[in-house]
Amino acid sequence: MRDGSLVFPMQAKENDGTNVLLSMSFTPSKKNWELSSTTNGNGCRDPTLVRWEDLYGEELFMMAHCAGGYYDVYRSTSDGIHWYEHLKPITRVWGNSHKRTGYGVQSGSTTATIGGKEVMLVTAPVYPKEEKNNGVNGRLHLWVTDGGRVYDVGPVSRENDDAAASSLLMQSGNEKLSVLYENKKGSDGSYNLVAVNLRVQLERIKEVVKKWKDLDSALQSCGSGSSGTVDTRGKGMCNGRVPTKRLVGFLSGNFSENEWRDEYLGVNAIVHGPAEKRRRVPNGLTFKGSGAWAEWRVGDMGQTVPYYFANSMFTLVATVSIHEVPKEGSGPIPLIGVRMNDTSSTVLFGLSYTHEKKLLAIGENPGDEDDFFEWEPNTTYQVVLRMTDEEWTVFVDADEIECKKYNGHLFDSYRISHFYIGGDGKDKSATGGHVTVTNVLLYNDDLFSNDLSKLNAGKVT
Q1: N or C: which terminus of the chain has fewer CB atoms within 10 Å of its end residue's CB?
Q2: Which fold has domain 231-457?
Q3: Which intervals hold domain Trans-sialidase C-terminal (predicted)?
Q4: What is the pLDDT of residues 209-244, one digit of tens each?
Q5: From CA 121, how far away is CA 110, in angstroms rounded?
């Protein structure tokens, strides 16, 4: 640490045999060793420790693989004495296996300052969905994260190796990156060590971080006359300054076949429906008819789930325009919402529109329709879905439409499957529909009214 302190990660066992995580630190001014005052990571093993420094000072991050099938990430004060709960934006992003079950292996991790931005680099093995005749080999992957966004740089181990535990080393002023990993040699449990120079991957990391920084800067200055290296206003991404703190995903004008690509290089949305029912427009898509919609996945991503944070907190923002009034007698047509991965594919909450020109907030147990927003055809609105660990709230043009507590027990066994946008292929009762959706933003936090007002003021009409 900056004051010369040394901090080591440790693993211990409770009386009942449960693994816990803690740390031991040596502070030169005190001239003694001190154990952390709290333990965390029940059921976790093989911790790694990295130092993180930003505008707010120094922190320590601890990462370990856990019995639940994923890697937990914790944070502490700079001295390592007091440990806090999960570092929620990135905890449980990485799984231990394709099905996210059982223990894994020790991950590699380090931090670096790339282009003036603090980032964390992580290595862990990724396993194929299907087993081969000789079992499942892990291919070591490298990720970069700024504590919110997560980008998979790709595989870094040799193709035929069965990679296990790994360690990352950054040298020469953040200009040389290497990985050392264990390669399982056979069924006898023996290993050899493999070292790889990650020069090419480091260059890609620099490109990704620059992309994040440039887009942040451009969105923050949108409409002010200075858009930096990305002309966000000219591209129709915004018409005023956009808050970028905690912004992790942005769907706008980038497409590839049946994908609506994330501007921040994260999770892409899948576009469903025949070509005649969906049409690209600047910064979004027009959907016409049942079966045409976009699916932005949270779960069902396999081993790595970059948007795992959404299971406890998020804000989803979209600009929409409804072009046709639904036929008389038709039911509410889904516009945007959140589905769970339970057997019923429960809609946790969302927005639908009706023949009576009402925008209705819906939940897993729909209530009355007293709270609604009246819409007009071909008029642009900004809709917001916000969730905390207790309640969900729906806004239209920064005005709150409805706020309700949801059934938290639903998350005891299940997680969010996806966000549906522009329609919902799971809702077989919905017919018709003709909407345009543009500039969809995902935050890993619950935005307050001042940020929602800024977003609404900067929407493109």
Answers
A1: C
A2: Jelly Rolls (2.60.120)
A3: 243-448
A4: 999 999 999 999 997 655 467 888 888 999 999 999
A5: 5
